[in-house]
Design a protein that fits this description.
By secondary structure, the protein is an alpha/beta fold. The protein has two domains: 128 residues, Sandwich (Immunoglobulin-like); 347 residues, Glycosidases (TIM Barrel, Alpha-Beta Barrel). It has eleven helices and 29 strands. Strands 1, 2, 18, 19, 20, 21, 22, 23, 24, 25, 26, 27, 28 and 29 form a 14-stranded mixed β-sheet that branches. A hairpin with a 4-residue loop joins strand 8 and strand 9. Helix 6 runs parallel beside helix 9. The longest helix is centred in the middle third of the chain and has 19 residues. This is Heparanase-like protein 1. It comes from Panicum hallii var. hallii.
Length: 540
């Protein structure tokens, strides 16, 4: 029995009166007077990892040639996929990052790739990137306009104290020489990230927060010396799982204006072979749990290091290379877009998806470089959702998720709607909070806090749509053949596929009268652009 049938079995067993043509009315009120948070222009980010082809999980080896060291950098589909974002932030890093050596003149040993070794961290030896390979990677980045975050080896020079605990100061000599070469070549690194998953108890290895903070001060000193009066890259760290006490101590030890962003990792769907991954994606209560992490990190930064900002440095949903049955399918976009929406509400500036290519969770297929459904979800977010995050009040089922940002280019606002329900559609009315009076009544959910009812609402834009001629733009995303595990996504019923020349297809909306309700079918997603929406926080 295939996974699709098992997944939809509860739907097939529903009584005849509950079918996809049934719907529930929902009201979304957009509060446009002020933003509650903001993202950066390069909020959407994707990673390129170090895993070699020998990286395997659950009797499968899904990485192929997708590593920093062996990725085909000349594949035209890769360049076009990056270029379409104009720009895409790319984070270079991952589990093997803290075993990477840099092939500089004073390395003092052969510059060899990773090999499998028993007893090695994550089962691999140290590996080395040559300066020639670094040149080729930067050619790709320069030609595609990528914004680059590069993760440095933060274990170099330390000694292993116990099974997973490492101590002693960081030996920065190899990294410094690599950075010096990078500066000499005018490669525009936006940010240097220090270490990968060494925070708290660590994954494979850990370093104490006090020593880590001292090492960050050294890194900042190196950057100041190498870049001089030029624009200096950001320092970001620790690139690990959130541990409140460890993160707070890191900010306090490193001190003001050293750590520009705190990167943390999220894999909240469980292991890649867990059969419950699909059900977790469509469980609104389960998805909302991650907000606790976003909220706590935001507060930690406010209290201990307000000069810093939260970033998601790596998030792949399911860990250990992702789920081969879910991570590259339409269904995964519900998790992905919901994560983007949740994180943005807590002032997350950057969200790096694991991966751009590689494993089961790549935005691009590892073998063919053809975009998976989440690629188009990311591209639509990047093109439509602006940096200003707005608050919403919503009535109705928790299975309809709603996120609102200022518009990206046309002003107004953009609304993202995710229907997690397997059988119920939603008829959504959008209202502006201008002149809205709250009174006891229907039950309106205000960003997860319940307030009471609506006494009176006004036109969705206030005054601009009074003549009834204004239009909105709708981008409805659905799965091919209605199969949530499909590898092909439909935009307004049209398959999203590369053109004959390998170009990313145009993403056309449909225009709809602004005063009509929005229908969001079961297990579908909609971006809705309101170009004339009166939102004071979003400008004219």
């Amino acid at each position: 029995m295939n996974l699709w049938f098992i997944f939809l079995l509860p739907l097939l067993c529903l009584p005849a009166r509950v079918r996809s043509e049934d719907y529930s009315d929902v009201t979304v009120i957009v509060r446009g007077s002020e933003t509650i948070a903001s993202t950066s222009d390069e909020f959407i980010c994707a990673t390129i990892d170090w895993w070699p082809p020998e990286k395997c999980n659950y009797d499968q080896c899904p990485w192929g040639r997708a590593s920093v060291l062996n990725l085909d950098l000349t594949n035209p589909l890769l360049g076009k996929a990056i270029q379409a974002f104009s720009p895409l932030r790319i984070r270079v890093g991952g589990s093997l990052q803290d075993q990477v050596l840099y092939g500089t003149p004073n390395l003092g040993s052969p510059c060899d790739p990773f090999t499998k070794v028993s007893g090695g961290l994550f089962g691999f030896s140290q590996g080395c990137i040559t300066l020639e390979r670094w040149d080729a990677i930067n050619d790709l980045f320069l030609n595609t306009g990528a914004v680059v975050t590069f993760g440095l080896n933060a274990l170099q020079g330390r000694r292993q104290i116990s099974r997973s605990v490492w101590g002693g100061p960081w030996n920065s000599s190899n990294a410094r020489e690599f950075m010096e070469y990078t500066v000499s070549m005018n490669y525009p690194i936006d940010s240097w990230e220090f270490g990968n998953e060494l925070s708290g108890s660590g994954i494979g290895a850990s370093v104490g927060a006090e020593q880590y903070g001292k090492d960050l001060v050294e890194l900042q000193t190196i950057i100041n010396e190498l870049y001089g009066d030029s624009r200096k890259p950001l320092v970001v760290a620790p690139g690990g799982f959130y541990d409140q006490k460890w993160f707070a101590q890191l900010l306090e030890v490193s001190g003001p204006n050293v750590l520009n962003a705190m990167t943390h990792h999220i894999y909240n769907l469980g292991a890649g072979n867990d059969p419950q991954v699909p059900n977790r994606i469509l469980n609104p209560q389960y998805l909302s749990r991650t907000s606790d992490t976003f909220r706590s990190l935001q507060l930690t930064i406010q209290r201990h290091g307000p000069w810093s900002a939260p970033w998601v440095g790596e998030a792949g949903g399911a860990y250990n290379s992702g789920s081969r049955l879910v991570s590259n399918t339409f269904l995964n976009s519900f998790w992905y877009l919901d994560q983007l929406g949740q994180s943005a509400k807590y002032d997350t500036k950057v969200y790096c998806r694991q991966t751009l290519i590689g494993g089961n969770y790549g935005l691009l297929d590892t073998d063919t470089f053809v975009p998976n459904p989440d690629y188009y979800s990311a591209l639509l977010w990047h093109r439509l959702m602006g940096t200003g995050v707005l608050s919403t009040d919503i009535s109705g089922s928790s299975y309809l998720r709603a996120y609102v940002h200022c518009g990206k280019q046309k002003g107004g606002v953009t609304l993202l709607l995710l229907n997690l329900h397997r059988s119920m559609g939603f008829m959504v009315s959008v209202r502006n909070d201008l002149n809205v009076n709250l009174a006891e009544g229907q039950g309106i959910r205000r960003d997860n806090v319940f307030v009471h009812g609506l006494k009176r609402t006004v036109s969705w834009v206030g005054s601009k749509a009074s003549d009834g001629h204004s239009k909105r733009e709708e981008y409805h995303l659905s799965a091919k053949d209605g199969n949530p595990f499909a590898r092909t996504m439909l935009l307004n019923g049209v398959p999203l596929e590369l053109t004959e020349d390998g170009d990313i297809p145009p993403l056309y909306p449909v225009e709809v009268s602004v005063n009509s309700p929005i229908y969001v079918a079961p297990l579908t997603i909609a971006f809705v652009v309101f170009p004339d929406f009166e939102a004071e926080a979003c400008g004219p």
